[in-house]
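Dear support,

We are seeing what looks like truncated structure output for some complexes. This example has two components. We would appreciate it if you could run it in full and send us the complete token output so we can diff it against ours.
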Amino acid sequence: MSMQRREFLKAAGAASAAAAVPGCATMGGASGKVVVVGAGYGGATAAKYIRMWSEGGIDVTVVEPNPEFISCPLSNLVIGGSKTLADITVSHENLTRRHGVKLVKDTATAIDPDKRVVKLSGGGELPYDRLILSPGVDFMWDKVPSLNNAAAQERILHAWKAGAQTVALRNQLTAMPDGGVFVISIPVAPYRCPPGPYERACQVAWYFKRAKPKSKVLILDGNGDVTSKGPLFKKAWAEEYKGLVEYRPNYVLTDVDVTTRTAKFEVQDPVKADVLNVVPPQRAGAIARAAGVVTANDRWCDVDFLTFESVKVKNIHVLGDAIQIGTGMPKSGHMANQHAKVCAAAVVALLAGQPPNPMPVLTNTCYSFITDKDVVHVCSVHQYDREKKTVLPVPGSGGVSTAMNELEGRYAFNWAKNIWADALA
Amino acid sequence: MKSLACVAAAAMLAAALPAAAQSSDPNLGRNLAATCANCHGTNGLSVGEVESLAGKPKDELVRKMMEYKSGAKPATVMHQLAKGFTDEQIQLMAAWFAVQKPAR
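Here is the complete output from our reference environment:
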């Protein structure tokens, strides 16, 4: 595809309507090269759907250093002990076998947006017509200075990327004597998975209630109140986990003492823990910074919600937790999957010389486990607003559970099976 | 150069027809249906306990969604999600699911 034609297609793509032109045989088939960085909830879904919706016409290469997909959603059940890491691990192989996605086990280290090339740590280069970055989050260790080294991070765990850290936190809990205190520090929003820390507190309490009833869960929240499903979590702590869980708002972490497992705060006195779990402040993954697409507060990436293309750098799209979210859009795996489909539809259309869908819709459904079986949800629907050029929650839609219940526990496991398959099978 | 002319024609048509956009994009039903896949499976083929939607009659899907939307049909999440879609969008996604190959 010549440069001139590409620019022209871009101009056509920017038009506000989707009109097929009879007699133009070349309009239907999309072709070109797409590179996807990251095979998580966003990247894997985008790769699969671009292959599926272009009927194999678009060449898709995914760059992912991890050997398998390990789900963050449900990983708190591994920490609580009712599931294992194997239960939340899925192979990438069907992306290649069933969908013809090329998988490169490597890390993207730099982007040349003018030459449209991704540079890999192994020295290789991948050219692209369109690049999709789904890099997730990086931790801002400079905000917790004593944790800014590998040895400290092995002692004071985040477990906010599922995998070895998840298992290590489980092991710290099983090794902790009964009567100990588990402290979880929550960063000021926005961060990955708003209800996740509160669900984790419930799962640790579920374990303590059975195995270590003299122990305690202490939630030290950088926010002024529970950021998601507040009344439902508070009810669980007051009833299901009475006497086991204490919640304290406005605890903004400034540092830790690694040796004594003590958390330090802006205002409040330090708190010593037997197991200290720090969820650090976060920002878009490093490759987003290298690509020059970080535009919001030096942390997140603003995108055009019709295409998820960066507002700053052409032909680079950004998905998932790395984006500057619209009103009411949580940083969740479900949302990343929905970003990916809006982006996939747009990329397939644009590479076929057609304009993107002018009215994308996204949903979110997030289940949190209170016990090993009882679950509460929050859900929402987001429609594109043409005048405001953003996605907004539909008034009157969405909501939360009335109370924790086992039926939604079954639906939560169904959700996991289907979304993992939607991304990877 | 034929393709350039086609694109130019598309761009002109597009500029002239903004109001008709939503009904003229052949992929709207597909794109809307894709929002359901997280719980109901890719292309409406569920691999879990929640029902598949592929190949279900359009009328049945529309009726259920409208009952969720009105609150007539109780649910855990669907009564909250259905309210986020317009009646036209419900028609489009139901029509798309209805013509998909059902689960065996």
